[in-house]
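Sequence design from tokenized structure. All designs in this work follow the same two-part layout: the structure record, then the generated sequence. An example of the structure record is given first.
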């Protein structure tokens, strides 16, 4: 059992080589009722993950040795733990790349520790950290696929589990709950970021593209998740509860 499961205090791993930034964030998270550990690079991150389980990872892009992008790819290959990336101010390409490889959200430097804490709380809520919020949610089915909001799992028509990030799962859940409706990017951000000033609109496009790669027979010619010109997106499948 993880420390967070036993104590009900979310456990956060901060992967940041600037110790003062990491320490300030760790103190703020601790004051907010969480536990926080600090890793200075990828090797430290791996060491911490071997001896503890974390509910969320804060990952800086610029790290000595293996950079944050590479670490994010490695994490996504083996876990769906929410990842919040820290990127340089004005480096939009970093944010897009981070989202493309599976990060759930990002914050640009310099940042407010309180803003990061708010983002972390939002991601934990979206990952259904509180069991009570999941009670009574029944699986949704479309075209042989099954989406289980309580277990936060997606299974393909063969029954195999398909890995999805927190953001991808939340977007697909919104689509399944609103089949046949045109949803704008702003509506999708509002549904998946709990009212926070979430990532730039293009992040929705990135996540939708990743969802298509997983649920569409031909992602280049999507049938289930269509783009509506000047509108947003529409989920065309029939959804059964």
């Amino acid at each position: 059992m993880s420390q967070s499961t036993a104590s009900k205090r979310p456990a956060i791993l901060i992967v940041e080589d600037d110790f003062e930034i990491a320490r300030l964030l760790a103190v703020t998270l601790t004051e907010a009722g969480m536990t926080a550990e600090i890793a200075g690079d990828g090797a430290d991150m791996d060491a911490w993950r071997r001896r503890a389980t974390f509910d969320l990872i804060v990952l800086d892009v610029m790290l000595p040795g293996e950079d944050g992008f590479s670490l994010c790819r490695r994490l996504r290959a083996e876990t769906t733990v929410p990842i919040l990336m820290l990127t340089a101010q004005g480096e939009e390409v970093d944010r897009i790349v981070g989202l493309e490889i599976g990060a759930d959200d990002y914050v640009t430097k310099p940042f407010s520790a309180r803003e990061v804490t708010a983002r972390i709380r939002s991601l934990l809520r979206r990952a259904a950290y509180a069991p009570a919020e999941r009670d009574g949610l029944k699986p949704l089915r479309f075209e042989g696929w099954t989406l289980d909001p309580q277990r936060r799992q997606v299974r393909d028509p063969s029954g195999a589990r398909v890995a999805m990030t927190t953001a991808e799962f939340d977007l697909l859940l919104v689509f399944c709950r609103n089949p046949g409706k045109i949803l704008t990017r702003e509506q999708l951000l509002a549904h998946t970021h709990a009212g926070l000033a979430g990532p730039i609109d293009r992040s929705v496009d990135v996540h939708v593209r990743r969802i298509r790669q997983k649920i569409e027979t031909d992602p280049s010619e999507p049938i289930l998740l269509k783009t509506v010109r000047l509108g947003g997106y529409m989920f065309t499948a029939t959804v059964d509860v």
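Residues 147 and 154 are 5 Å apart (CA to CA). We note this feature because it recurs in several other targets discussed in the main text.
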